[in-house]
Specification:
The protein has 14 helices and 22 strands. It is of the alpha/beta class and 406 residues long. It folds into 2 domains: 173 residues, 3-Layer(aba) Sandwich (Rossmann fold); 210 residues, 3-Layer(aba) Sandwich (Rossmann fold). An 8-stranded mixed β-sheet has the order 13-12-9-14-17-18-20-21, with helices on both faces. Strands 3-2-1-4-5-6 form a 6-stranded parallel β-sheet, with helices on both faces. A two-stranded antiparallel ribbon has the order 7-8. 42% of the residues are buried. Bound molecules: cytidine-5'-triphosphate.
């Protein structure tokens, strides 16, 4: 079970070479157990046949405006009634122009006109066509109709030119679809999240660091954004793609992280410190690579500032401060100590020794402790863990009266 399970997506394709990418998206959606029905314009069928979409989705492909469904309702009415989201991808300049004028001359435009469900439009075309004032004006009209437009990417285009016009990436579209299906209970909240490890340099070739994949912090950032929050992600070096639509600040050392956090902390309504900050840094950073002529060698370390404890000291009444605790023993006791000493509203305690809860895995099992009670969450995906942590944050925002005023 995942967030797209059972969601009915109507995929409307029009005539661009990018139709083959829409076929990949259909495959991705089906993998996530969404129910995909495709409709294709005549031009889309010049690039990819309906059979491809039928095979990938296991569903009929519609293209005929005047086909009658078994219950006697015309396809364009039924299709818009029976789905949760209408995704038009790729949307050509021609299709966008039709939609902007309210035309119903083919099945795709008729379905969009009849739709009462959320409509997401993903333009793909030559860059001059995309930037032409006519297309831009049409897109503004579509925004005015309440449709969501996913800006195309820039890059080399199939026509040989370079510029804006490439169909947006699947990750961006998937995040938008998920946000349309998720209650916006964090709308108006400014959430700062830290993730990943820090690196403390020894010399140009070496550093000390903590083990951390960044997966928990990145999951929190994605889920918070889906729920409507404006998210700033301050991240150490990790091997994860930047979550689309989120402001990412990339840092290396604990000192960099501290500066980046303090720059934005004042404006944040919620701060979540999921990063594995190095507690110590080398007392001296060697400008040249250190040579291995010594048989024994010890490194002198200085303590880094505790960023979370400093945030706790500066915390305002209208701010929720959340920490993580990476523990190998005495989870409850250590969690409570850190909650109290760092002046937190909530702490998520992780077991770093478990094979399914420690570093680099997609699952987690955390103990959530706040000032009033504690909850032990079962083992679940890091995204589901993120949802539970954010539910708790919504409770805390409510208790502080910070949701009512929005
Ligand atoms: N943290 C921080 N700055 C540091 C060290 C930790 O902001 N210099 C934050 C982490 O991001 C986390 C929380 O403090 O949210 C707890 O981190 P953890 O490593 O579990 O504990 P420490 O406070 O470092 O204490 P100890 O290492 O003694 O367990």
């Amino acid at each position: 079970m995942n967030d797209l399970t059972g969601v009915r997506i109507l995929l409307g394709t029009s005539g661009s070479v990018a139709v083959y990418k829409a076929a990949e998206w259909a495959r991705e959606l089906v993998k996530e157990e969404a129910i995909v029905t495709t409709l294709m314009t005549a031009a889309a069928q010049q690039f990819v046949t309906p059979l491809t979409f039928a095979a990938l989705t296991g569903n009929s492909v519609y293209s005929n405006m005047f086909s009658i469904d078994p219950d006697g309702v015309m396809a364009h009415i039924n299709l818009s009634r029976e789905n949760d989201v209408l995704l038009v991808a790729p949307a050509t300049a021609q299709t966008i122009s039709r939609l902007a004028t309210g035309s119903a001359e083919d099945l795709l435009s008729a379905v969009v006109l009849a739709a009462k469900i959320p409509v997401v439009i993903c333009p793909a075309m030559n860059t001059n066509m995309y930037t032409h004032p006519a297309t831009q004006e049409n897109l503004h009209k579509l925004i005015g109709f309440g449709y969501r437009i996913v800006k195309p990417d820039s890059g080399s285009l199939a026509c040989g030119e370079t510029g804006e016009g490439r169909l947006a990436g699947w990750d961006t579209v998937r995040e938008l679809l998920l946000s349309l299906l998720t209650p916006q209970d964090l709308l108006g909240q400014k959430i700062v999240i830290t993730a990943g490890p820090t690196q403390e340099p020894i010399d140009p070739a070496r550093y000390i660091t903590n083990r951390s994949s960044g997966k928990m912090g990145y999951a929190l950032a994605r889920v918070a954004q889906r729920r409507g929050a404006e998210v700033t992600l301050i991240t150490g070096p990790v091997h994860l793609p930047p979550p689309p639509g989120i402001t990412c600040v990339h840092i290396l050392s604990a000192e960099d992280m501290e500066n980046a956090v303090m720059d934005v902390a004042d404006k944040a309504t919620v701060i979540i410190k999921a990063a594995a900050v190095a507690d110590y840094r080398p007392a001296e950073i060697h400008q040249q690579k250190m040579k291995k002529y010594k048989e024994h060698f010890s490194l002198e370390l200085d303590k880094n500032n505790d960023i979370l404890a400093e945030l706790g000291k500066r915390k305002k009444d209208e701010q929720v401060l959340v920490g993580f605790a990476a523990e190998s023993q005495n989870h409850d006791q250590e969690g409570r100590r850190k909650l109290r000493e760092k002046n937190l509203d909530l702490i998520a305690v992780n077991d770093i020794l478990g094979k399914t809860t420690g570093f680099d895995v997609d699952t987690n099992q955390v103990l959530l402790i706040d000032r009033e009670d504690s909850t032990s969450l079962p083992l679940m995906s890091k995204e589901n863990t993120a949802s539970h942590i954010l539910n708790k944050i919504v409770d805390l925002l409510n208790r502080k009266g910070m949701l009512a005023t929005l």
